[in-house]
Amino acid sequence: MRKRAQMQMTETIFVVFIILIIIMLGFVFYSKFQEISIKEKEKILRNIEVIKLAHRISSWPELECSIAGAERFACLDMVKLEVLGDFINRTMKTNSYGFNYYYDLLKNSKITITEVYPSSTKTLGTDYWLLYDNPGSTPLTDAVIIPVNLYNPVSKTYALGMMEVQIFK
User: How far apart are alpha carbons 127 and 133 in whole angstroms?
Assistant: First the structure.
């Protein structure tokens, strides 16, 4: 009788041990699944932030083109792009008020505008503008490319451009 009780006790301990292992494996798989889900949600939220930033930039009065007081949708003035880009880059070196103001709005990001049509020689200041470049300390980035109208007030012509907004973590 005693050996039979001992045998049943051993079987019970073995069954409890197996059940605990199954529960632990379930927790591990569940936590991995949750981790992947959280990372995907973080990426979606970062992409939303990039899109919000790009939309905010395209409606800045410092950059938008206006003809006779009428504003155009997603239209950037080429002359204003060059002037604002120079101003931000100059004040970035001295860490003065201008850079601090735009840093509060743009944080760690890089904003470039490229003229795609009718010309694309990638010449800085002619058909390629680096508006803001503050990459921060991490290499991980999310980017979005948005088509914009570019207006040249000197020649009174329009061009098609692409605004690339990258946000660094």
Answer: 17
Q: How many CB atoms lie within 10 A of CB 99?
A: 20
Which H, E and C letters describe 20-40, residue by residue? HHHHHHHHHHHHHHHHHHHHH
Can you give the pLDDT at residue 23? Answer: 97
Q: d(Cα 20, Cα 79) in Å, to the nearest integer?
A: 69
Q: How far is Cα 36 from Cα 68, in angstroms, rounded to an integer?
A: 52
User: What pTM was computed for the model?
Assistant: 0.72
Domain edges within the chain: 12-168
Asked whether the beta carbons of 155 and 167 are under 8 A apart, the reply is no
**Spatial CA neighbour of 165 closest among 134, 137, 138:** 134
